[in-house]
Design brief:
Blueprint: E1 3-8, H1 13-24, E2 28-34, E3 48-51, H2 58-67, E4 72-74, H3 81-92, E5 98-101, H4 107-119, E6 125-132, H5 142-154, E7 173-175, E8 178-184, E9 190-198, E10 201-209, H6 216-228, E11 231-234, H7 236-240
Parallel strand pairs: 1-2, 1-3, 3-4, 4-5, 5-11, 6-8
Antiparallel strand pairs: 6-9, 7-8, 9-10
Helix pairs in contact: 4-5
């Protein structure tokens, strides 16, 4: 059985990549290719929607898919825990809805985030430095936000991380108490470093994307999950059993 996919944000970098992946797959076909400003009526009849638009547009895409009861995979950044809350409420109230939010489709990124989550309770000082290409419009990245939120959850019984002088702008933006420093510059694809500090030692967990091909397995995993599961899923790690 071939699953038809509506790509919203099809003209962007990730949309173009997804279009190629679907063309090369045996179990997916492109239902429609929509730009971020196109009418969302174009998703009608699709088996799955994948959203790779922009933070300001993504909520409209998610709402349109849920209104039509079409499973959706969201690869757009900017979905913090607060923004996800109403989606979680809506999906939990209707067991026929599916929404999968993936801040980063890279398998290595999912593993690095899980490693940081495991290490978080053992270190009082934790900061994140993330870098992306100059054209990325949002900061912090969705990956950094998700990592910081998971670090905070892992430390719930211990309290927030140590983040002195948080009033100074150069100390980064605090996300769930974790300082996050964002770089947007030429020559970079995507890189995240979580630095954990304790008495007499530091641990650095680094993931770097060298090619967009690193996203391909994760995209297929998420799309296959959307076609076969229901409910709200956040993060590729959940689909990998991490």
């Amino acid at each position: 059985m071939v699953t038809s996919v509506a790509i919203v944000g099809a003209t962007g970098r990730m949309g173009t990549l997804i279009d190629r992946i679907l063309a090369e797959s045996d179990d997916f076909a492109v239902h429609s290719r929509l730009g971020r400003d196109a009418s969302l009526d174009g998703i009608d009849g699709a088996d799955v929607v994948i959203d790779v638009t922009a933070p300001a547009v993504s909520p409209q895409v998610v709402a349109a898919a849920l209104d039509r009861r079409i499973p959706i995979v969201v690869g757009t950044s900017g979905w913090t825990a607060d923004r996800l809350a109403p989606i979680a409420s809506r999906v939990s109230a209707d067991d026929g809805l599916t929404a999968i939010f993936v801040p980063n489709f890279s398998l290595g990124s999912a593993l690095a985030t899980r490693f940081a989550e495991l290490a978080a309770p053992h270190f009082p000082s934790i900061e994140i430095v993330e870098a992306h290409h100059a054209a990325k419009t949002d900061s912090p990245s969705g990956t950094a936000i998700r990592t910081a939120e998971l670090i905070a959850a892992a430390r719930a019984d211990l309290g927030p991380v140590a983040a002195p002088h948080a009033d100074q702008r150069a100390r980064g933006q605090q996300v769930a108490s974790v300082p996050v420093h964002s770089l947007r510059m030429s020559g970079v694809s995507a890189r995240q470093e979580v630095v954990l500090g304790g008495e007499g030692e530091t641990v650095r967990i680094v993931h770097e994307t060298l090619s967009d091909s690193s996203y391909e397995p994760g995209i297929l995993i998420a799309l296959r999950a959307a076609a076969s599961t229901t409910g709200l899923v956040v993060g590729l790690g959940a689909l990998l059993g991490l």
